[in-house]
Design a protein that fits this description.
2 copies of one chain form a homodimer. Chain A has 10 helices and no strands. Chain A is 75% helix and 0% strand. Chain A is elongated. By secondary structure, chain A is mainly alpha-helical. Chain A folds into 2 domains: 44 residues, Arc Repressor Mutant, subunit A; 127 residues, Tetracycline Repressor, domain 2 (Orthogonal Bundle), CATH 1.10.357. At the A-B interface, α1, α6, α9 and α10 of A face α1, α6, α9 and α10 of B. Chain A binds a DNA duplex through α3.
DNA sequence: TTACAAACCGACTGATTAGTCAATCTTCTT
DNA sequence: AAGAAGATTGACTAATCAGTCGGTTTGTAA
């Protein structure tokens, strides 16, 4: 693993444990086993590091989730696949999940950043399709996507403190019904 | 306004603009027009200040929302009243809203803190009633409450970037349907 | 072999930070 | 009026911070 990646891994862990505020750049470098200088070689400022991490994580989770969707699937099947993939990915990557939540609810974040993501655009297109087909509620596609995302987050938080339910597929599909009912017509 | 309150007001604004990380205690005191020392007289540490603000804001929003609910109201009416009150309160107090989001998604936060709130307990009791009456989905009451809360947050975020919809009551009741459908059986 | 760039190091710094403290002022009780 | 208790001040500090820099190593391509 190259030093840039090592830095991002360590930073992710420290940020999710102690927050942006509680994590010194020197500590990131030290625990990553690299020099202080190299951190600023790859990321000119601490903010640059934080933003780079955001785009990196966001990319990976979307790539994973969207990759699971079959081409011939119905709309509900596709949405369920996406929902489940996102939930499971976040459960398996708790540090990424914590980092994302912190970032998206910090002053770093804006809707422009969100919309700039090509994968968000793809998800919005899926929402558009659902609205056209009269399956989803007739509301702004971006809003439906955001509602879905926040329900995924809440589901993940819940399953985290109830780990015994994580492997219960029947229960998970009942949790999915919450999200589905929220957006369906 | 006493100095303690003045400090909390200023801190709220600065935290919501620049985050916990980006706000120095000295600056809070200065912009509040009080001495540096008095901040630490009322709040022994910066974290104490942050936590005190959280409980203060949370108290006020719940007191406001729960106070709106009529005794004779049906369950759906009660939930709508709560939903609407929360949405409007957050829209009118954007700094409180930003502060809360930041806090609840930071390492400061835990489920224990949430559950310790007497008002959260009251809301959970309402959810229990809905489940008993077979109106809500048969799931943990706390989960239904959290789902509701996160949909309120997403609604507020959406109305914030679409201010022209904020006074459209018909539209708002359509937004409520998202939250209602999510939890109803 | 040379030569050049990118990767890498870690000691260093100037600015900033949370928190302290000794002294003064205000308010209230007796 | 005395005097105790809390409120208030702002200069101060020790620690910590993000970011710099002069120099070294490593990879690579001609």
């Amino acid at each position: 693993m190259d030093k840039r990646t090592k830095l991002m891994h360590t930073a992710k862990r420290l940020f999710s444990e102690n927050g942006f505020y509680g994590t010194a750049t020197a500590r990131i470098a030290k625990e990553a086993g690299v020099s202080n200088g190299i951190l600023f070689h790859y990321f000119p400022t601490k903010d640059d590091l934080i933003k780079a991490m955001y785009f990196d994580i966001k990319d990976r989770i979307f790539q994973y989730s969207l990759g699971q969707v079959y081409k011939g699937a119905t709309l509900k099947e596709s949405i369920y696949t996406l929902w489940l993939a996102a939930v499971e990915w976040n459960l398996e990557n708790p540090e990424d999940f914590d980092f994302m939540l912190q970032f998206e609810n910090s002053p770093y974040y804006s809707v422009e950043i969100e919309k700039s993501h090509k994968y968000v655009q793809m998800s919005v297109e899926l929402a558009e399709k659902g609205i056209e087909q009269q399956v989803f509620k007739h509301l702004t596609p971006l809003l439906l996507f955001q509602m879905m995302s926040s329900l995924v987050d809440t589901t993940v938080k819940f399953l985290r403190i109830n780990p015994e339910l994580q492997s219960d597929n029947e229960y998970k599909s009942r949790l999915f019904e919450i999200a589905w009912d929220a957006i369906k017509k």
